[in-house]
Amino acid sequence: MLINSAVYDDGRMVAEPELDDVSEALEATQTGFVWIALRDPTDDELSRLQHELELPPLAVEDARKGHQRPKVEEYGDITFAAMHLLEMGPDGLEVGEVHVFVGPRFVVSVRHRSNQGFLGVRGRAEREPELLRQGPGFVLYALMDAVVDRYLPLMDGIDAELEALEETMFVPQQDRQAVVQKLFALKQRLMTLRHAVTPLLEVTAKLHGGRVPMVCKAMQDYFRDVYDHLVRLQASIDAARETIIAATQVNLTLVTIDESLVTKRLAAWAAIFAASTALAGIWGMNFEKMPELKWAFGYPMALGTIALVSGALYWRFKRLAWL
């Protein structure tokens, strides 16, 4: 589906052509470029654009199928970029994609399986005509910067949930199984974010310094800024991953400690009842030669002895913190 189509010349929009009129609109201006945005396009729409702008077939096939790893590829003077779009859903992070074709006189963004639009990016670019005059390279930077900026709140959310879990981890009577489940869910979200950030970090490093695609030469300082954001994100992801691993190990240790405490309590009560049972068993044998059987205070003495031994054991186990 076509979301937007505009021709820009000298930083200003001069036309809004249909897909079949893109080449004619570009011929009407010698220095302008066209910016086309598609969402979940049909094969026919991609084929028409491929014909109009002479897009590379392999890149078009990638954009048609989707499910691509974040990457930047060069096809002559055309650069193709694939990035993941992440948003929170009911079952965790949902992954969409945006594929961007960048040529000397055009930018085509193709969005798949995502509700995150880029109208704000277009509005920002139109408010900065001095940067829009830089051409398609600036648009690629603006799109990439918007994608990376959307990763930051997701990382902040993971950090906040992880801190909240750490604060409640040592609360008595905590449901350890629920904590482990939450930690595992956080780890899954973190890995999804990592799969979006790490490959993009690798390819963004090739967009500044040394040999870079022709359309990116004038925007190298801006791509370096995107690279710095990705480096910080990668560091945060690594730190959160280590924290999750440590928190999981601590939680499992606490489970072991809780089980040990329960075992000690059971052992202490078993010892107390074992002593009582032993004494009661001795006096319950009913031998005739047992002196206390004929004694008026024999029964109270037996009960007192049982209570005394049980009380002594209870006091001892309490001192050992077993009870």
TrEMBL record:
Q: Name one Pfam family in it.
A: CorA
Xref: InterPro entries: CorA_cytoplasmic_dom (IPR045861), CorA_TM1_TM2 (IPR045863), MgTranspt_CorA/ZnTranspt_ZntB (IPR002523)
Q: What membrane topology is given?
A: Multi-pass membrane protein
Q: What top-level branch of life does the organism fall under?
A: Bacteria
Which Gene3D superfamilies has this protein been placed in? CorA soluble domain-like, Magnesium transport protein CorA, transmembrane region
Instruction: Please give the chief subcellular localization of this protein.
Output: membrane
Q: Which UniProt keywords apply?
A: Cell membrane, Membrane, Transmembrane, Transmembrane helix, Transport
Q: Where in the cell is it found?
A: Cell membrane
TM ranges? 266-285, 297-317
What family does this chain come from, according to its entry? Answer: Belongs to the CorA metal ion transporter (MIT) (TC 1.A.35) family.
**Name of the molecule in the record:** Magnesium transporter
Q: Which organism is it from?
A: Roseateles asaccharophilus
